[in-house]
TrEMBL record:
GO biological process: response to antibiotic
Origin organism lineage: Bacteria, Bacillati, Actinomycetota, Actinomycetes, Kitasatosporales
One of the Pfam families matching this protein, by short name: Erythro_esteras
Protein name: Erythromycin esterase
Superkingdom of this protein's organism: Bacteria
Length: 413
């Protein structure tokens, strides 16, 4: 058995990942089972560099606010702002405090120096403007979409004025009140104003689509793509706020589902630009349903990876990550009868596993599920091996930075 498992292990490098896949994927997703560990992000950075240099990848997308990510993209493509400003203003969830994320942005900017626009690397956040404490106001995305259309489309076709949007939106703190996450009565998401804004947002997105032939000739591809991002974000946020105000048992299922749906739409837009690497929690990128307990009850929803995979097929590749120890979090050596325990016995500090082949090897003696003593780490469910294209295993994690609190999906058991 030990020899069979060793035969599934390879060096963690882009070339080895590609050999596990039927073809170069348009979107290669690298998952992680916990957040806030620069060891994992350093590994991601190295893999991205290899994908850029060896496989022609040009974009990286991470689990961060899609609107804030535009600040990072402007910096890496044109040098707008300073590195310090970008790390502070371009990341959500505390990701800007990561030394590995800082190194990624620095390297991308250096790579792009003196390169033509067609060869420059691009950065994207693909999460919605959402925190565990609530959601952003739809103002930024909605007014940016309106401003774009007002510049390029006849005024008579616009469904409303900018002043109407401002009046309906009201003060932003009405939308961002953290009390609304636990008390639907505190949310404005089902107010008359919010309902009117959902209709206007839908009309603005429809107008953007209807004027595509003109906009292709009148504006740049980057401007059109940003306008589409504004539209997706505005409609997604308004839908999220609507369900924050809901009192039915389906409330939390809708909220986590809308978040991953927003992620999926952003990932599909990134993939349409060309081959890209996506990095987020395993639970967001896996092909199966995700599940977690909220308020003592289980909540299930289709992950962004499942949604994207259903659209892209073999053009979507998913490599999960599993860990041996996170001793500074109380996660010690894994039991020998678990998947992580079997991999922990390998001599390598980190390796890339042929996940479907390992699933076949273990079919007659399936490993026991591992239970983490720390809520922030989600062990790999052995039943998910066969649906993963690869599995990166890292034996031990040293202590790293700590991000702000974010929802951590639990994989289905």
């Amino acid at each position: 058995m030990a020899t069979d498992i060793k035969d599934t292990a390879h060096t963690v490098e882009a070339a080895a990942v590609m050999r596990l896949l039927p073809a170069r994927p348009r979107l290669l997703a690298l998952g992680e089972p916990t957040h806030g560990e620069d060891t994992l992000l350093d590994l991601r950075n190295e893999l991205f560099r290899q994908l850029v240099e060896e496989e022609g990848y040009r974009t990286i997308a991470i689990e961060s606010d899609c609107m804030m990510g535009l600040v990072v993209d402007d910096y890496v493509t044109t040098g707008t702002g300073s590195l310090d400003e970008v790390m502070e203003q371009g990341f959500s969830h505390g990701w800007g405090a990561s030394a590995a994320n800082r190194e990624l942005v620095r390297w991308m900017r250096a790579y792009n120096e003196d390169r033509p626009a067609s060869e420059r690397l691009r950065f994207a956040g693909f999460d919605g403007p959402l925190e565990i404490t609530g959601a952003a106001s739809p103002r930024q995305a909605l007014t940016a979409l309106h401003d774009y259309l007002a510049t390029w489309v006849e005024a008579a076709l616009l469904p409303c004025t900018r002043e109407t949007l401002d009046r309906l939106l009201g003060a932003d703190d009405r939308w961002t009140d953290p009390a609304a996450m636990t008390d639907p009565a505190q949310s404005v998401g089902q107010s008359a104003e919010a309902g009117r804004l959902r209709l206007l947002a839908d009309d603005l997105v429809a107008l953007l689509d209807a004027r595509t032939p003109h906009l292709i000739t009148a504006t740049s591809r980057d401007d059109r793509e940003r306008a589409s991002l504004y539209g997706r974000t505005a409609t997604g946020l308004l839908r999220y706020h609507h369900w924050m105000a809901d009192t039915s048992p389906a409330r939390m299922t809708w909220l986590v589902g809308v978040r991953d749906q927003m992620m999926a739409h952003n990932l599909l837009a990134v993939a349409a630009r060309g081959p890209a690497l996506a990095n987020a929690h395993n639970g967001h990128l896996q092909r199966q349903k995700s599940t977690m307990r909220m308020g003592g009850a289980p909540v299930e929803w289709w992950s962004a990876g499942a949604l994207v995979s259903s659209r892209l097929g073999e053009e979507y590749g998913f490599v999960a990550t599993a860990l041996g120890t996170i001793r500074h979090r109380g996660v010690d050596s894994p039991p020998s009868d678990t998947l992580e325990g079997l991999l922990y016995a390998l001599p390598e500090d980190r390796c890339l596993i042929d996940a479907p082949r390992l699933a076949t090897t273990l079919a007659d003696t399936p490993p026991a599920p591992r239970v983490s003593p720390w809520f922030g780490y989600s062990p790999m469910d052995p039943v998910h091996l066969a649906d993963s294209d690869g599995l990166v295993f890292v034996k031990d994690l040293p202590q790293s930075w700590t991000p702000s609190a974010v929802p951590t999906p639990r994989t289905r058991t």
